[in-house]
Amino acid sequence: MWQGRFKEDTAQVVLKFTQSLDVDWRLYEHDIRGSIAHVRMLGAVGLLKNDEVEQIEKGLGAVREEIRRGDFQPSERLEDVHMNIESRLTELLGPVGAKLHTGRSRNDQIATTVRLYLRDCLLDLQEALLALFAAILDRAEEHADIVVSGYTHLQQAQPVSMGHYWMAWFESFLRDYGRLEFALSSLSECPLGAGALAGSTLPLDREMTSRLLGFDRPTRNSMDSIAQRDYMADYHHFAALFAIHASRLSEDLVIFSSQEFNWLKLPDSFCTGSSIMPQKKNPDVPELIRGKTGQVVGHMLDLLITMKGLPMTYDRDLQEDKRGLFASLNTIGGVLEVLVPLIAGTDVDEAAALAGLERGFALATDVAEYLVRRGMPFRDAHWKVGRLVKYCIETNRRFADLSLPEWREQLPEVDEDLLPLLTFRESVERRQTFGGAAFSQVRQRTAEGRAWLSWKTENLTATRKNLEEYVL
Ligand code: ARG
Hints:
Layout: H1 12-18, H2 21-24, H3 28-44, H4 50-69, H5 81-93, H6 106-142, E1 147-152, E2 155-161, H7 162-185, E3 189-190, H8 206-212, E4 217-218, H9 222-227, H10 230-256, E5 264-265, H11 284-291, H12 293-307, H13 321-344, E6 347-348, H14 350-358, H15 364-373, H16 378-394, H17 404-410, H18 424-429, H19 439-468
Parallel strand pairs: 3-4
Antiparallel strand pairs: 1-2, 5-6
Helix pairs in contact: 3-4, 3-6, 3-8, 4-5, 6-7, 6-13, 6-19, 7-10, 7-19, 10-11, 10-12, 10-13, 12-13, 15-16
Bound molecules: arginine.
């Protein structure tokens, strides 16, 4: 396309090294949409005649059909998706096809195309995340009355409702959803018309192309429009934190389902066996979710490091922004695809959870707080209950094994009203602080979660419906 200025042909190795077709071919639908908007605008401002607009639009439609049918063999010699489509168009239409790129550069073209593509991807991710919320809420409601141990330092800490545990992940993913919405809002301005970097001497109507493509408005600075990739970084930030949350959740599933904990049951269909050990049921799915986190975080770093030190405005380095973006989108989509049914199929063995709790001293804080209610300073209560735990360990007893006289021997402040408090269920029920582990708190939060979910589901449906009008 630029041979006019050159004395030699581009070297083969350079063609091979500089092409981006292997990565950007998946953008063809969105590239063609951007081109259709551009051509309609060129017609509206009088740079193309009506019949030229019609011909080009038809031609682009024909190329699109060829690609969809799999009849189009793109060539690496033509470097990228944009030039392949344009050159095929010119093949089909002759000189009229050569008018498509009027007032446009691949710099604003790629910025527009990726935003359109990413917008669709982020909507798909929102939908997948909403399914994740539904699965978590289902579990939280179903397991609302089941008591399990909560852990700090992976040591038994205090009993909680399993519903409370699930809702803890609800909150994490809720923040991820907020980051996803933010990433989507980063895509709301249209860079088309920014040209190579400085806009155009031609009377382009940027409001029109922005409107036709479903953006809120055109970008305000042509240089920034083609130089920045913040909208990708915003996606990566969402992706990295989501991956980390999914990884930590997966780690829990692996640990809680191991023989040593043994109170969480993963669905057989999401586990695999061993080629040698017949007894094995391995949690490969959560392990792989955990294992893919590094790639996702890595893709974020990849983009940030690529951006660092790039002179204003477009630099060819920016072509490398897409490889990691698409890989990350693939991974996150894949994780969500298995995580939702995995959670849906996960169950709790209540008896095993209880047996585990009975081995520890998860009610120690309850005893200390009982003493506090009787007027003892907390630090004293902490020390005395600690001493009691030591006594129990040394004499191989549980709290439940101690009779009232024995309690009194160790802690004279104790009355018989302590004993009914010392059940795991009672302990959970009494944690009534806002956001605490009490069953009632959890039920309230799941109800709020349901309301939030239906609100966001309606929003997403409306957004999708609205954007459908802009599919050119
Ligand atoms: N394939 C290029 C990319 O993905 C398109 C933009 C090329 N622009 C340029 N000035 N060479 O970034």
